[in-house]
Task: inverse folding
């Protein structure tokens, strides 16, 4: 299975490529008043306004820096079992893809409402992803 690999701080993470619609360079975002701090703004994505979440801020409390490796991954998910919706994920260091088999992953043992984005892990030669 193909994944997009990215880093936040010293840690590596994966997003299944099947969930990714497109990866785009950072763009000008429309700020949204009174939203949580991790909401970077709205992206005009092919004529549709989609919210963009700053993953660095969500996970570390520090905003993503604009680097050459910074990207917005447009992903889809099902909202409470309803229709699919798109959001953007602002990620600071997205430069690689990785291939892993589903059997390579194991349960992390960590399940909390506050980190619902955190799923199974895979042990790699450079550490846990």
Result:
């Amino acid at each position: 299975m193909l994944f997009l690999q990215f880093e936040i701080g010293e840690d590596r993470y994966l997003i299944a490529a099947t969930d990714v619609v497109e990866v785009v360079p950072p763009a000008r975002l429309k700020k949204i008043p009174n939203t949580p701090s991790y909401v970077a703004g709205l992206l005009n994505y092919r004529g549709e306004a989609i919210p963009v979440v700053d993953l660095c801020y969500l996970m570390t409390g520090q905003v993503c820096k604009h680097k050459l490796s910074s990207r917005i991954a447009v992903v889809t998910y099902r909202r409470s079992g309803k229709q699919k919706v798109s959001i953007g994920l602002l990620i600071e260091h997205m430069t690689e893809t990785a291939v892993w088999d589903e059997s390579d992953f194991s349960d992390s043992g960590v399940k909390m409402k506050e980190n619902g984005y955190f799923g199974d892990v895979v042990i790699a030669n450079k550490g846990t992803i």
Notes: The chain is about 5% helix and 50% strand. The mean pLDDT is 82. Residues 2-128 form a domain with the OB fold (Dihydrolipoamide Acetyltransferase, E2P) fold (CATH 2.40.50.180). Helices lie at 55-60.
